[in-house]
Design a protein that fits this description.
- There is one protein chain.
- 44% of the residues lie in helices and 18% in strands.
- The protein has 188 residues and is an alpha/beta fold.
- The strands form 2 sheets. A 5-stranded mixed beta sheet has the order 1-3-2-6-7. Strands 4-5 form a two-stranded antiparallel ribbon.
- It starts with a helix and ends in a 6-residue tail after the last helix.
Length: 188
């Protein structure tokens, strides 16, 4: 056994790991200043809404959905979108194919085939009214009642007026086309 060689290999391994640790730390500290959407579970948002009412936004996604990933990388990373969503909604990121059991006000929702491929959770089916398309965005009012579902990828510039339409309750006295035509956003 060659002890000096083993010591050299261990020393190199330690230096390599230390270097990776430092680069991870510097990357983390740089990205931590980038604003991010404050995501929570549906259960957390639902409970918070009982004591501090606020609209709920739900990003309904699946792990295999390419447009969902693009939405995360672009629209949900845009600073204006992040700021508006964090200030005006409880933001939920919900895997439509989640495997666990959810109990809301005594009603149990499950994934009927949790080991199957592309098996939708009952809560996702309920929230999307059976129209299983991803990504889909569910807007609930302060009483956790469904306002609408918006399906499909949305670039930040097109998503901004949708957020404001529901966030500002414009839907109560304006038609969408009228609101959209007048909307002056911040997203370029």
């Amino acid at each position: 056994m060659n002890i000096p060689r083993i010591s050299l290999i261990l020393s190199l391994a330690i230096l390599t790991l230390a270097g990776k640790s430092q680069s991870t730390t510097s990357t983390t500290s740089t990205t931590s200043t980038t604003p991010k959407i404050k995501w929570m579970s549906f259960e957390e948002a639902y409970e918070l809404n009982k004591t501090k009412p606020k609209k709920i936004f739900i990003d309904m996604w699946t792990h295999w959905c390419g447009w969902c990933k693009r939405m995360d990388a672009t629209t949900f990373a845009h600073p204006e979108i992040v700021d508006y969503m964090n200030n005006n909604f409880y933001n939920v990121k919900m895997d439509a194919e989640r495997k666990d059991t959810v109990v809301i006000d005594g009603i149990t929702f499950v994934n009927p085939n949790p080991t199957g491929r592309r098996s939708s959770h009952q809560l996702a089916i309920e929230l999307l009214r059976g129209k299983m398309s991803y990504p889909s965005f569910v807007f609930l009012n302060e009483k956790s009642q469904l306002l609408t579902v918006v399906a499909g990828y949305q670039p930040a510039k097109e998503f901004e007026p949708i957020l404001h339409f529901f966030g500002e309750d414009a839907f109560t006295d304006q038609q969408w086309e009228e609101y959209k035509a007048k909307f002056q956003g911040k997203v370029e």
